[in-house]
Amino acid sequence: MTELSKILLYPIKSLDGIAVTQATLLPGGALQGDRELAIVDANHQLINGKRNADIHRLRSQFDLPQRLIHLNIQGESSTTSFHLDLQRPALEAWFSDYFEQPVHLMQNLETGFPDDLESTGPTFVSVASLETVASWYSDLNVEAIRRRFRTNLELDAATAFWEDRLFGEPNVPLPFRVGDVQFLGINPCQRCPVPTRDPDTGDVYSGFQKTFVAKRRETLPEGVLRSRFNHFYRLTVNTQVPASEAGKVLRVGDAVETIAGRYDLS
């Protein structure tokens, strides 16, 4: 039986994640606390790994019950702590100094700030997939791949790319269940430049995407709809969450159950 083995939240978009044992679904489909905050510049443009490689050098640790963030710069020993709500102006000033431009934090308590604005549910991957991808690179381990792809929910499936069975034909959401929470599998996630970079330094890994594409094409599981891969720089599954699931709780150890049929969004 496949189970949910890890839940990862990224409280501030593009910063480090935190593992938790349970998470609540928000009305917009996101996990409570995931990408709740985002750093934006004076033009309200996101400062993220796609646009600013300097963000990779920020190390962050979170105490979500206490609403605290502990920040330091990669390679430096000093750490500065802030309350995410009560010390928001001071936190924004710290980020502004680091990025050498005025920035502030935006907050969204319903959907967070997902990359896919249509599929706002959490992303899924199996640990076996992360292990397989790590094996394609002689100097990367599973944790390095985990930090590059930044997935929310990890499964203990026995085979790599097991999660590819959680999506079907285009425009036909595929229902599945984790514990008592229903999800709709939408598509294999198209990746951005972030996984090609060292998560600590932002340095580009030469040939990362080329190797990934070749190996992903070669190892695509039998029975997976090849037509969903207009290119093979795709990993993890994007989801939507029906409004009926808001307030439900996911827990590590929850069973994953595929459901025959399709889901009608009308």
Automatic annotation (TrEMBL):
Where is the secretion signal located?
A: none
Gene Ontology molecular function terms on file: catalytic activity; molybdenum ion binding; pyridoxal phosphate binding
| Location of the MOSC domain | 88-259
Q: Which InterPro entries match?
A: MoCF_Sase_C (IPR005302), MOCOS_middle (IPR005303), Pyrv_Knase-like_insert_dom_sf (IPR011037)
Fetch the Pfam families from UniProt: MOSC (PF03473), MOSC_N (PF03476)
Protein known as: MOSC domain-containing protein
Name the species this protein comes from. Answer: Acaryochloris thomasi RCC1774
